[in-house]
């Protein structure tokens, strides 16, 4: 009986401490994103074709344990982007939250760095940032069909990450809602959960082990499981359709491959024999149906920057790039465009 009483006492004390910690986090240091909105009281609206789209002239302030900033959209429902009045080239950039620039101010996104760096190289361009949080390749294909005739770009870039494979569907299906929240009363909504994750995930070794224990690791297996192989084929088909659509409009197309955090953190570590962190990227980049598309791989540049810098390139808990990470991607893309795209080379050659 005494053992039971002692056990209940210990349980009660532990529960009280955890409850106190949860209350303190909720009041003084929330670990889930806290979003506040402008007059429209929302930043996106449901859409039958794209699943959702950003509202025009909307504002969202986002506060997390790792960053605190405000996003704005313009009248077209795209992220506000620096204007280049003397631009002789238009670049349309499609993508998800990594292209939109979650965790980055307007001038810190990789499309903003791209525009600024190309201008420094003598190529005056207007970049249109059409990245939308939660979009996968299917959503981006449908969005492109809407944007291409509107903007008539000279170059189209697509920011691609392996996580697009996880939600892509056939063209005839509805896109997946990749921004869904946990159920209202889910334990995942407790602030103590991301607080504990933030502490644990500071270890690169533990981050890698935990990631590889999830179903997401299947997308880095070689050879891939059957369901991943299907997703690879669906994704290649969508990218091929997107390339055809862009080329029909007379624009040039490049895919910007941005690594997920696991592809940086897990690099150089002892991994299971069937794990290849570059497999999916190589499969898509080398596929016959995409031979006409320039593949801009930023992984090695990000690794090299991480080795030289004592500043992180990713927000460990949130998973998005930091300002340094976005800058690294933007500079790499600018170098690749200036060196390889015929339209950029022709502009550089002009006196």
Characterise the protein shown here:
It is a single chain. A hairpin with a 4-residue loop joins β4 (59-63) and β5 (68-72). The longest helix has 27 residues, at 2-28. This protein has 13 helices and ten strands. The chain is an alpha/beta fold and 351 residues long. The model has no long low-confidence stretch (mean pLDDT 88). The strands form three sheets. Strands 7-6-8-9-10 form a five-stranded parallel sheet, with helices on both faces. The protein has a three-stranded antiparallel sheet with strand order 1-4-5, with no helix packed on it. A two-stranded antiparallel ribbon has the order 2-3.
Walk me through the topology.
Elements: H1 2-28, E1 34-37, E2 44-47, E3 51-54, E4 59-63, E5 68-72, E6 89-95, H2 97-100, H3 110-120, E7 125-131, H4 137-151, E8 155-160, H5 164-167, H6 192-200, H7 204-212, H8 226-248, E9 252-257, H9 261-265, H10 279-285, E10 294-297, H11 299-308, H12 323-340, H13 342-349
Parallel strand pairs: 6-7, 6-8, 8-9, 9-10
Antiparallel strand pairs: 1-4, 2-3, 4-5
Helix pairs in contact: 3-12, 4-8, 12-13
């Amino acid at each position: 009986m005494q053992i039971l009483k002692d056990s209940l006492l210990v349980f009660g004390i532990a529960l009280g401490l955890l409850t106190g910690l949860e209350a303190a986090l909720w009041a003084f240091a929330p670990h889930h994103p806290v979003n506040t909105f402008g007059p429209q009281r929302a930043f996106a609206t449901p859409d039958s074709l794209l699943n959702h789209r950003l509202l025009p002239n909307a504002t969202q302030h986002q506060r997390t344990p790792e960053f605190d900033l405000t996003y704005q959209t313009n009248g077209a429902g795209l992220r506000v982007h620096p204007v280049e009045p003397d631009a002789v080239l238009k670049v349309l950039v499609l993508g998800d939250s990594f292209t939109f620039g979650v965790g980055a101010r307007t001038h810190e996104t990789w499309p903003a760095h791209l525009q600024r760096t190309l201008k420094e190289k003598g190529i005056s361009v207007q970049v249109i940032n059409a990245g939308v949080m939660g979009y996968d390749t299917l959503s981006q294909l449908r969005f492109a069909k809407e944007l291409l005739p509107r903007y008539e770009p000279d170059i189209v870039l697509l920011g691609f990450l392996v996580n697009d494979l996880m939600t892509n569907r056939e063209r005839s299906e509805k896109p997946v809602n990749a921004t869904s929240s946990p159920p209202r009363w889910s334990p995942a909504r407790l602030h103590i959960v991301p607080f504990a994750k933030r502490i644990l995930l500071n270890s690169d070794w533990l981050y890698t082990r935990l990631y590889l224990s999830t179903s997401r690791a299947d997308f880095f297996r070689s050879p891939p499981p059957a369901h991943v192989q299907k997703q690879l084929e669906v994704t290649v088909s969508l990218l091929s359709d997107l390339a055809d659509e862009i080329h029909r409009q007379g624009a040039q197309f490049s895919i910007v491959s941005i690594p997920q955090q696991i592809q940086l953190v897990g690099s150089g570590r002892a991994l299971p024999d069937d794990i290849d962190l570059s497999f999916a990227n190589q499969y898509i980049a080398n596929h016959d149906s995409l031979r006409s598309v320039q593949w801009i791989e930023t992984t090695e540049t990000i690794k090299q920057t991480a080795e030289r810098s004592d500043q992180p390139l990713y927000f460990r808990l949130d998973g998005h790039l930091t300002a340094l990470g976005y800058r690294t991607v933007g500079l790499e893309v600018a170098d690749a465009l200036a060196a390889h795209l015929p339209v950029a080379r022709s502009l550089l050659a002009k006196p």
